[in-house]
From TrEMBL:
The keyword Membrane does not apply. This is TetR/AcrR family transcriptional regulator. It comes from the Bacteria. Residues 29-48 bind DNA. PROSITE patterns: HTH_TETR_2. The keyword DNA-binding applies. The lineage of its organism: Bacteria, Bacillati, Bacillota, Clostridia, Eubacteriales.
Length: 188
């Protein structure tokens, strides 16, 4: 009779997420995940056909709540500048709480992920959500001619959040203030 493990999917999810955070995508394999979960490798393959599918599932699930929060802000009655500041706050807090899951998305050298259409779509969705809040803000005259300015600002903000969390993790309030001031440098 097969061994019944309660909440096996959530155990696989949380254990895998922890391993990806600690060791990075390349260093983790299905055998390692199964061992940490206390299950047979075959059991793990019953839930996920490979490491990439498991990682993408974790990535999507971990960002789903963030996207819901961002949509809520974008649909709110806040003033455009308040929306942009709230978007920065949400992104900062959620990226900080996620402790780096998704950092591999910056590395184009992981072909397994960078060539996957779902990963590309995910990156585009993330930038679009930020871009939506920034597009409502009036830019300084010198930036108005650039058709891609909203995307560029979005990329600057997102990458800055990632770098500043890593470099100055115990200074959240100051970091968010700097990010907001960075955004304001582009605005009227």
């Amino acid at each position: 009779m097969p061994k019944i493990i309660k909440d096996i999917e959530s155990k696989i999810f949380s254990t895998s997420m922890d391993l990806f955070l600690k060791k990075g995508y390349k260093a983790v394999d299905m055998k390692m995940i199964a061992k940490e979960c206390g299950i047979a490798v075959g059991t793990l393959y019953n839930y996920y056909p490979n490491k990439k599918e498991l990682y993408i599932s974790i990535l999507k699930e971990s960002w789903n709540d963030t996207f819901i929060k961002l949509d809520s802000v974008l649909e709110s009655s806040l003033l455009p500048k308040e929306k942009a500041n709230e978007v920065i706050n949400i992104l900062y807090s959620d990226i900080e709480n996620r402790q780096g899951i998704g950092k591999e998305l910056r590395n184009d050298n992981i072909k397994d992920l960078s060539n996957d259409k779902r990963v590309t779509e995910f990156k585009e969705t993330l930038i679009k959500k930020i871009e939506l809040s920034i597009s409502k803000l009036e830019k300084k005259e010198e930036f108005k001619e650039d058709k891609n300015i909203d995307m560029k600002i979005s990329e600057i903000i997102l990458m800055s959040i990632i770098v500043i969390i890593k470099s100055h993790k115990n200074e959240k309030v100051k970091n968010i203030k700097i990010l907001n001031k960075t955004l304001e440098a582009f605005l009227v």
